Amino acid sequence: MRPLSDTFPGASYPQVLVGLSEPDDAAVYAVDEERAIISTADFFPPVVDDPYNFGAIAAANALSDVYAMGGRPLMAINLVAYPDDLDKSILAEMLRGGAEKVREAGAVIAGGHSITDAEPKYGLSVTGEAKVDSIIRKSGARPGDRLILTKALGTGVVTTALKREIAPSGIIQQAVESMAHLNRVASELALEYGLRSMTDITGFGLIGHALEMARLSGVDFVIDFEKIRLLPGAEAFAKQGVFPGGMARNLEYFAQWVDTNGQLPEYAQGLLYDPQTSGGLLMAVAEEQTNAILADLRAGGENAFALGAVVAGSGKLKVSAGAG
After folding, report:
1. What is the pTM of this model?
2. Based on C-alpha coordinates, what's the Rg of the chain?
3. What's the number of domains the chain is made of?
4. Which among 1, 31, 107, 314 has the fewest CB atoms less than 10 Å away?
5. Which residues does 57 contact at the CB level (< 8 Å), separation at least 6?
6. Is the dihedral of CA 282, 288, 294, 300 positive or negative?
7. What would the pLDDT profile of 240-298 be if each residue is shown by its tens digit?
């Protein structure tokens, strides 16, 4: 099968600064020498029961791709799939949750498209803007950088526990708050500090998205599991084997590039491959900036923590309990 990149070769479309030739969080198109447009889309079925919360989470998740590139969201288009026989008041609450999250981001809902489907789905197509010389790609990590993540892990196991009706409401609420939290402040601080490499953690889990950064940067990442913050309940559910199906798929594909040296228990490895919904931003930060940006992130309301380092390599990960 002929790849799309053959149909749209990069040399023929120099305005496309980020596109099919190098995978990243969003497409970037240069309007002129200084300004660029960022474009992305994301939608999925409900991960929580409350329709308003689901709408807010789906919107935050879609907006995150713009933030991961160092951009500012401008407008969004609703993407909706909805059953004919489901109460339309549920749809109204989904759309309200999404709209209020977009407004919080300083952007606007400018339209939408809907289809009939057996299962509800919701998300956004988002357009943002950035300065050409300020775009943050996955590919800029350098040996000596420190790795920072801005949200705790565990949304996959917690929402799976919700589906199995074993998660207390308090634990669900804390996961909802994390997923609905915008990556806006973290992105703005990344620009302020001039970061070169960043991505958001979503469906491929921490391992998958970290590997993308490492591979595109031509380096290795060293991650210390003991430094990773987990959402309340996540570790307990993981020890019970409460994982979504996507965890096993991530593990099967990405494990070939990951060295755990046999040190991590099975539940801990599962948490690293756990698909995240609207996760945090993974940043590669110069060592001398690490303490300062961590302090600013936390002052801005981010649950940020350092979890490892960048070393010379060829796109692999080493994960252990006590990597330093």
Report:
1. 0.96
2. 19
3. 2
4. 1
5. 47, 48, 97, 176, 179, 180, 277, 278
6. negative
7. 999 999 999 999 999 999 999 888 999 999 999 999 999 999 999 999 999 999 999 99
